[in-house]
Amino acid sequence: MKKSLRKSLLTAALVPAAAVAVGAAQPSSVKAQPANPCAPVAAPVNPCAPAAAPANPCAPAAAPAKAKADEAALPRDMFDTTTKFPQAPYGNKMPDLVKNYLRATPYIGTGGVLEPTGLDTLAGLGFKTIVNLNTAEEGSVTEGPMVEKAGMTYINIEVPTTAPNAEQVAEFARIAEDPAYYPILLHCESSNRVGAMWALYRAASGIPKEIAIQEGRTVGMKTSREGAVREQLGMEPL
C-alpha cells in the first residue's frame, strides 16, 4: 500500500514536469519559423527585376544624339571650313560639265550653262542645290525636272535684264546664307549674270563696293552688265 502510494505520487510529480517540459519546448518551436528570414523577403531580395528596363538609357536618347551630331556638322556660313561638310569641288576636280566653272566660296560654285547629261555627275560630286538665273525662254523650265530627277533641289531666279533687281538679290541671299542648301551651284548661260548677282549680293552683305565689283568680275561679270550693277550701287560709271 505504501509502495503504491509512492508510485502514484511519483507519477503525479512527473506529469506536471513533463507538461512544463512540453510547455517550455513549445515557444522554441514557435520561434523557429522566423529563424529563416528568406521565405517572406525572397521576392524583394533581387532589386534588379523592376529596374532592368530603364537600365539602358541609350534607347530613347539615341536619335536626338545623332540629330545633334548632324547639326554640328553644318558649316556656320559659306566660308566656314571647320567641319567635314561636303564642299563645292575645285575647278581641277570638275569635269567639263559647267561652262566657266569657278568656286566662289567653299560651298558655292559658279558658272554658265550646264551639260544636261551631267546632272547625275554633279549630284555625285556633292552639289545639293542648283540655282539657275536663266529665263524660261533659255530653258530654265525644262532644266528643273532634270535636276530634281538627279536628286538635287532646283531654284530658278529669272534675270532677264542687265542686272538682278533688289528682290532677286534678296532671294539669292536667303539661299546662299542657308547651309541647308550647301553645296550650291549658281549658273546662267555664260556666267555674266552670275557675276552681276554675286557683286550685288556681296555689296549688300557689307563688302566694300569696289571689292564686290572685283569679285563679280572674277566669277564672270562682263562690262555689258557691270554698268547696270555700278548704277545700282551708286558708283561712277565705267
From TrEMBL:
Alphabetic keyword roster: Signal
Transmembrane segments in this chain: where? none
Q: Which InterPro entries match?
A: Prot-tyrosine_phosphatase-like, PTP-NADK
**Does the entry feature the keyword Signal, yes or no?**
yes
Task: Name the domain of life this protein comes from.
Answer: Bacteria
Q: Where is the signal peptide?
A: 1-32
Keyword presence, Membrane: no
Which Pfam families does its entry note?
Answer: PTP-NADK (PF22741)
Q: Report the residue ranges that make up the DSP-PTPase phosphatase fused to NAD+ Kinase domain in this protein.
A: 110-204
Name of the protein in question:
DSP-PTPase phosphatase fused to NAD+ Kinase domain-containing protein
